[in-house]
Amino acid sequence: MKHKPYGPYERFVKRPLDCLLASSALIVLSPVMLTVSVLVRKKLGSPVLFTQDRPGKDEKIFKLYKFRTMTDERDENGELLSDTIRLTPFGQKLRATSLDELPELLNIVKGDMAIIGPRPLLTQYLPAYTEEERHRHDVRPGLSGLAQVNGRNFVPWDQRLAYDIEYVNKITFLGDVKIVIKTIKNVLAQDDVATNTEEIDEGYLDEIRGVRGRG
User: Is 5:11 a contact under the CB 8 Å cutoff?
Assistant: First the structure.
């Protein structure tokens, strides 16, 4: 059964509030974003932004924006080197402070994302979800979410997706505020932050569930 809005906040307030807050944040943080853009261009080259297709609400594909954190170093065959090699100390700092996520504010203003919601994952995972887990796409994906403040990449996939469904089933203003506060605390303390995804053993969801290989 398709998700139905839990209450007035989700129906009438959440999207306008997200748009207002994201637009305001873009204005206030514009000096920071400009500084990061210059540093990324100087240290990592162009393009400054990393873009990738991600599934959004109703599994509609959109372009996710982030600041670039890795180089384009390749081997003699023209293949990209591993993330461990291409991820520089500067890129690690961007990830640890979540500054690389700031361009996603543009996705929120555009309507691709929300401030709080299930994180937009890889498109290759779409065939791997159970019917229940697919309901994570009944709402806009978020800059942060319930799974992100409860362990992030360090939590097994089944539990992370269960957090997503738990959130979708009961979206409230107070719940969103709690997630925002905990997200800020985690960022400041740099808790549950995986700056290098190759250092954690989360694996790829589609491979774990035997759906298909990486695309």
Answer: yes
For residue 163, give its domain range: 8-191
Q: Please indicate, yes or no, if residue 170 is contained in any of the structural domains.
A: yes
Token look-up 């806009």 returns 140
Cα(105)–Cα(99) distance, integer angstroms = 11
pTM, entire model: 0.91
Q: What is the pLDDT of residues 196-209, one digit of tens each?
A: 555 545 678 998 89
Whole-angstrom distance, CA of residue 125 vs CA of residue 111:
22
Domain total of the chain: 1
55 Cβ partners below 8 Å, 6+ apart? 61, 62, 120, 121, 123, 126, 137, 141
Domain contains 196? no
- Tens-digit pLDDT profile for residues 42-92: 999 999 999 999 999 999 999 999 999 999 888 888 888 888 889 989 999
214 found inside a domain: no
Asked if 136 and 130 touch (Cβ cutoff 8 Å), the reply is no
For 100, other C-beta atoms within 10 Å of its C-beta total 21
Return the beta strands (E) in the chain as ranges.
49-55, 61-67, 114-116, 142-144
The predicted pLDDT at position 39 comes to 97
Is residue 23 included in any domain, yes or no? yes
User: In the prediction, which pLDDT does 212 show?
Assistant: 65
Phi then psi dihedrals of residue 53, to 5 deg: -70, 130
